[in-house]
């Protein structure tokens, strides 16, 4: 029986999502940048691998085997060059190797981020505007609640080092560009690498909303285009 247009579109969408997941680093949850393959056959961005190797006893973020080796994953590089995905802002099909640079210059993507930032800010009480780290999170390991970003990272590093399992990053999932279903293989390492600053800490709430939103957008774009 011939496949309907809707079924075909759904199948192509699923395939695209599978491709994107296969080309996403398990540590930073971004499309691979300078992918490197280690001895156990898992692949990480070069910067993420270097960060993992700084531990006293480096282990693979996926399988927890001793972290050894690190050679350029040429086949992954080639796949990044020929696999396309859609920009979340303008919908343009972009090869995954170029997605980060596209997002950095796409006006529609900036609008997409802007709307998400405004939506996140509009429900905040004005009296709290001078308090950093207003957003709070729940620890995915033990369900400890009301942790701001810095407290979450410190809590997980102190109380859950050595605990593994694929988990959704509560900070990423709260952001307008975050995928609430995407799980990191090593959440603690992800938190340390991807969340070095808090948006609230860096935004000047004494300026008007348009300036505040623009600065938050700039910070978010810088964060998404870090070599991680």
Automatic annotation (TrEMBL):
The keyword Transferase applies. Residues 137-165 form the C2H2-type domain. Keywords: Metal-binding, Transferase, Ubl conjugation pathway, Zinc, Zinc-finger. Pathway: Protein modification; protein ubiquitination. GO terms for biological process: protein polyubiquitination; ubiquitin-dependent protein catabolic process. Pfam families: zf-Di19, zf-RING_UBOX, zf_C2HC_14. It catalyses: S-ubiquitinyl-[E2 ubiquitin-conjugating enzyme]-L-cysteine + [acceptor protein]-L-lysine = [E2 ubiquitin-conjugating enzyme]-L-cysteine + N(6)-ubiquitinyl-[acceptor protein]-L-lysine. One of its GO terms (molecular function) is zinc ion binding. Its EC number is 2.3.2.27. Residues 87-106 form the C2HC RNF-type domain. It comes from the Eukaryota. Residues 25-64 form the RING-type domain. Gene3D superfamilies: Classic Zinc Finger, Zinc/RING finger domain, C3HC4 (zinc finger). InterPro entries: Di19_Zn-bd (IPR008598), RNF_E3_ubiq-protein_ligase (IPR051438), ZF_C2HC_RNF (IPR034734), Znf-RING_euk (IPR027370), Znf_C2H2_type (IPR013087), Znf_RING (IPR001841), Znf_RING/FYVE/PHD (IPR013083), Znf_RING_CS (IPR017907). This is RING-type E3 ubiquitin transferase. The lineage of its organism: Eukaryota, Metazoa, Chordata, Craniata, Vertebrata.
